[in-house]
Amino acid sequence: MKKYFDLKVPILFLSIFLLSSIVLIIKMNSGDECNIKEFQVDAPSFKVGELIIFSDASKKSHSWRWYFGDNTQISFRSKVAHSFMEEGEYLVKLIVNNECTIQKVITILPKENSLDKSKFPKFRVPGNVMQDEEVEFVDRTDGAKSWEWRFGESGKVDSFDEKCTYVFTTPGKKVVSLVVNNDYKHVTIKELFVIPKKKEVVKVEKYKSVIPWNPFKNVPDAPPEEEKDDVVKVVKGPEIGGTDARKLEDILESVAKGKTNYESFLKHFCKYNLPIVIYKDAKTSSLKEFFYAVKKKGDKVKNVTIQKDGEDCIRVINIDKKHKSYF
């Protein structure tokens, strides 16, 4: 019996196999078909300057491109951190596997306590001025209606005028601050240096033969007055010699560690001429208040500058931190 072989049958099966293979390959290549609907965004708050975490946890993803809508560089990781430097709405776009595109609008809020630079008072100060000479200060802030000038010597408001003059009575670095329209968030602080005035040299003529007539020559001297208790003498502490800014920093470090009490601390100052403490924001405090604030805070005090008088007494201590850092 003769068997008949139909060639069409294997051709049909081969065609079905090839067609199935093609369909399978297409499906495999389209496995990146966009099944990703969103990406994750994590942040404690969406404010200017704060880091925001963007991530994609989808399966079978092998490439990523992040566009943040703020003209910054593209990121190519599945998880990235980004911060926006200005408030507003940003369209964040993610392209996965070069095919799938997901977009989301992120709203960035203003940073808390962010300050408007245009609201800071505008005035100029000279770099150096002479002690006991009059210096003029003028505010040039648009829309200013009230003023508070502080010149770093009195510890209080020195002038309420738009244009004022001031005489610095002690030499050294001074902090000048200005507040306008009672806006204490926007305070302009500038520094200047007061140059000590030159001591006048009195020339005495030698061998002067003519003695001027003294109308009080025959008037008896008044009896000497008894020393009064209210006369203040300069009483120097036993450790005052050689106390400079660096040594004062070491002493304050000892105070912060609780190794120096207030009585020992006072040995480095003149008893009846204790210095005033001026902070970076032009606020002031007494020496005793500053001592206990340093002791309580327990931190090392750095960048201290001092001003002394002719008796070698420390009269001013300048602290390179704001008043609220201690109180």
Automatic annotation (TrEMBL):
Describe the location of the PKD domain by residue ranges: 63-98, 146-182
What the entry lists under Gene3D superfamilies is as follows: Immunoglobulins
- What keywords is this UniProt entry annotated with? Membrane, Transmembrane, Transmembrane helix
**Cross-referenced SMART domains, in alphabetical order?**
PKD (SM00089)
Q: Which residues form a coiled coil?
A: none
What residue ranges are annotated as transmembrane? 7-26
Protein name from the UniProt record: PKD domain-containing protein
Record organism: Flavobacterium sediminilitoris
